User: Which sequence fits this backbone?
């Protein structure tokens, strides 16, 4: 069942007196209930602007956002949960006091014990907000997004700046929330994050939506090959030229030969027959990073 | 619709923030105390050698009773001040504002028995004139610190109201606290009202504590009612907070807001009668000072303290403060922006 429908969304910003920037350029997509929907793209792609229009925080220049088929209205604030990309909290309040403050804004709230357990806040409830680590602060912000027991939760780059362990812990929290049949709308520029937690993704670049579907669907659609990598020193130059293989990490001491293959067994047999040593070989399927590179011609982190 | 639960939650949160920020709390308490104690020491000595003598209808006395008045009026090192009304002159004498009061037409004079200077200037007067009827008045003298007290406390309230509200809102806006709050059902009115009431509570708590604490060892002069003083102080603070909200209603830049707040506070600090009276100032300057909320707060409080004025006596100042508050609040609420757009 579709819970959010976005039709021909356009948003202009006035960058100077004479110049307008089109931050979102005719974007349309749908989000299914109970799914985790990922909006992917590099910084400046228009993800945050799009998600903030969906949240009712900013107005679109044109286009339509429908919740359950009805236009966005003022009451949406009590039905959705939001975790912004950059949010400060009141410095001198404790975690518990912040939860109490935000609880008082809503008519209906989730049980605090349940929320504290769900977001793993128990160990630092009495700590001042300004003394929280990055991961703890993101967990508190997630709790605030869930405080009104919303059907839809918006998470805008929730793991940016977190260390790898904190990121993985956060992914588990997202999965726990999804298990409660909530719809999650997530923006990220981490492709591994999208692959781990998203059921559907939409890829944005320069304000435009360039692809949409499930991660697996998109990878199958765009990639038939797997990648085989071997250290450059082990592969004769003649062989590289003959097969038109790519050499990656040029100018580094760790040059790799990239071999695209539709049949791994056949390629390995060929390499053995050519007496190429297989030490250091590794095989990799295409991922969303590769997809983004293929679709836009540049990497996500460019 | 205004939701009191949400309002009280934000009010409580803001108060907790303020009282837990020890450095800010300490400075808010310490600054006015330092000023009051400093001024009480600086102006505790007798800086002037001359005596001040009030004369009822001075010019008329000099012309209609030239023989009687000429001798004493020619005395050196005595300032003669003209008064048209006896009761005002008597109040000044009782407050040690003048040292002697003479009515040449009725051949009467008044001394303040609590004032050593009054005793001495009476001796000088009697050496020149003998057949005047002596009247006695009593009263504790007004020191400069008593006169300056409403100004110093008012100025501290002004800084706390303007910077405490203006900077906090701009900081909230800049670091997206406002944006986060906007994403909840909290309305702008609830948020702004909570900030306003919280700051009013904080300012009145701090000012009352400073006044009561300093009064223990500085023993301030007070002719009027403490309740009236509280009312005019609260209305003045409300007006200044509203002005702070107006200054901070849209900006996201702390630097710009700091400049605007300085632009707002400096004229009030200099022209609202905090440090000196504007009685002799040009009419244009006096008219401009009437546009400043602090002028009415200080003038109202000073009249209560030094003249025993009631709320009805200072109704002009109260009405002006109420009108200004309404205007600032209306404009602040109209232009208020959560600043969700870039």
Assistant:
């Amino acid at each position: 069942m579709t819970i959010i429908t976005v039709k021909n969304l356009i948003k202009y910003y006035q960058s100077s007196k004479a110049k307008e920037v089109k931050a979102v350029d005719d974007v349309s997509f749908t989000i299914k209930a109970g799914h985790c929907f990922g909006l992917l793209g590099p910084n400046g792609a228009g993800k945050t602007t799009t998600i903030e229009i969906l949240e009712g925080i900013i107005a679109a220049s044109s286009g339509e956002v429908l919740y359950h088929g009805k236009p966005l209205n003022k009451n949406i604030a009590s039905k959705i949960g939001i975790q912004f990309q950059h949010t400060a909290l009141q410095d001198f309040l404790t975690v518990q006091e912040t939860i109490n403050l935000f609880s008082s804004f809503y008519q209906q709230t989730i049980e605090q014990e349940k929320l504290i357990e769900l977001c793993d806040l128990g160990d630092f409830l009495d700590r001042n907000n300004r003394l929280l680590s990055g991961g703890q602060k993101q967990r508190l912000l997630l709790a605030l997004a869930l405080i009104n027991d919303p059907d839809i939760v918006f998470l805008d780059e929730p793991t940016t700046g977190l260390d790898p362990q904190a990121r993985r812990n956060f992914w588990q929290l997202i999965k726990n929330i999804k298990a409660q049949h909530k719809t999650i709308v997530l923006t990220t520029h981490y492709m591994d994050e999208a692959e781990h937690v998203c059921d559907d993704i939409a890829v944005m670049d320069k304000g435009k939506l360039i692809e949409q579907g499930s991660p697996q669907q998109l990878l199958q659609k765009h990639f038939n090959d797997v990648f085989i990598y071997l250290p450059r020193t082990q592969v004769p130059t003649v062989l590289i030229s003959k097969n038109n293989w790519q050499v990656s990490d040029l100018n580094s001491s760790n040059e790799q030969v990239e071999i695209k293959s539709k049949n791994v067994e056949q390629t390995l047999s060929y390499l053995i027959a050519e007496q190429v040593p297989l030490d250091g070989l590794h095989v990799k399927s295409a991922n969303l990073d590769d997809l983004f590179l293929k679709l836009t011609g540049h990497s996500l982190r460019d | 619709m205004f939701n009191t639960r949400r309002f009280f939650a934000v009010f409580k949160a803001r108060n907790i923030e303020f009282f837990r920020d020890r450095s800010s709390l300490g400075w808010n308490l310490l600054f006015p105390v330092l000023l009051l104690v400093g001024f009480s020491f600086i102006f505790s000595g007798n800086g002037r050698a001359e005596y001040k003598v009030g004369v009822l209808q001075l010019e008329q006395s000099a012309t209609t009773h030239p023989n009687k008045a000429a001798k004493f009026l020619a005395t050196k090192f005595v300032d003669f001040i003209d008064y048209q009304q006896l009761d005002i002159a008597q109040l000044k004498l009782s407050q040690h504002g003048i040292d002697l009061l003479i009515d040449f037409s009725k051949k009467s004079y008044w001394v303040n028995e609590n004032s050593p200077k009054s005793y001495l200037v009476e001796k000088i007067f009697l050496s020149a004139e003998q057949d005047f009827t002596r009247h006695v008045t009593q009263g504790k003298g007004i020191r400069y610190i008593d006169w300056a007290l409403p100004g110093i406390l008012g100025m501290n309230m002004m800084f706390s109201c303007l910077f405490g509200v203006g900077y906090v809102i701009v900081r909230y806006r800049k670091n997206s606290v406002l944006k986060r709050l906007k994403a909840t059902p909290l309305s702008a009115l609830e948020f702004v009202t909570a900030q306003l009431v919280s700051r009013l509570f904080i300012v009145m708590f701090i000012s009352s504590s400073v006044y009561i604490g300093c009064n223990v060892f500085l023993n301030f002069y007070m002719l009027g009612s403490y309740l009236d003083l509280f009312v005019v102080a609260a209305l003045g603070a409300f007006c200044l907070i509203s002005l702070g909200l107006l200054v901070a209603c849209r900006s996201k830049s702390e630097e710009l807001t700091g400049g605007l707040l300085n632009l707002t506070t400096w004229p009030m600090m200099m022209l609202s009668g905090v440090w000196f009276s504007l009685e002799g100032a040009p009419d244009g300057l006096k008219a401009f000072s009437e546009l400043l909320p602090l002028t009415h707060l200080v003038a109202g409080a000073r009249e209560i303290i030094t003249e025993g004025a009631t709320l009805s006596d200072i109704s002009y100042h109260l009405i002006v403060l109420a009108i200004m508050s309404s205007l600032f609040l209306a404009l602040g609420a109209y232009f208020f922006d959560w600043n969700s757009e870039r």
The two ends of chain A are 36 Å apart (CA to CA). The mean pLDDT of chain A is 87. The longest strand of chain A covers residues 2-14. Residues 164-178 of chain A form the longest helix (15 residues).
